[in-house]
Amino acid sequence: MKLKITILAALILLSSSFAIADDYSKDELEIIELNRWVPLVLKEAGFEAYTELFHPDYTNWYMQGEEGILTTREQFLGGVRGWFEDGNYANFSEVQPISIDILGDVAYFRHIQEEHFVHPDGSQSMFKGYFASIMKKHEGKWTFYRTSFSELYRGEYPRTP
Known about the structure:
By secondary structure, this protein is of the alpha+beta class. 35% of the residues lie in helices and 45% in strands. Strands 2-1-6-5-4-3 form a 6-stranded mixed beta sheet. Strand 3 (89-103) and strand 4 (106-118) form a beta hairpin. The longest helix has 21 residues, at 2-22. Mean pLDDT is 89; it is low at 2-19.
C-alpha cells in the first residue's frame, strides 16, 4: 500500500512539473533556463563560456541607493572574472518567473532569483533579488542585453535569524 501511495505521489509531482513546462514556449523555456544557468556556468564551463552569454552591447544596472550602479559589459565581466579567479563560485541557482514577453528577437523577463555561493575559505553566502532583464538574440542564441536588479537578501547561508 505504501508503495502505491509513493508511486501516486511521484506521478502527481511529475505531471505538475510537466504542466508548468507546457505553459511556456520553447523560447521562454530557453530564457528561463539561461537565467538559472548563468551563475553556475563559471564553475561548470569556465569564464569564456560565461562571457558568451552576454550581448556585445550589454549593460547591468544594480538598483541600489539613489542612482544605482550602471556597468558596461567590460566592467561587469572584469568584476566577475576577478571574483571567480579569487576562488568564488555559485553552487545553486533558482529562478521564479514573474512574467516573460517575447517580441521577435527581444524578450523582457521579470523574475526572482536565488543564488548560493562558495568562497575560498569554505564559507557560503546567498543572494536573492528581483530582476528585470532584456534578453536579445545574438548569432541565433539568447543573450543578456540589459539586466537590472535589486536585492532582497545578501549575506550568510544558511540564513541565521
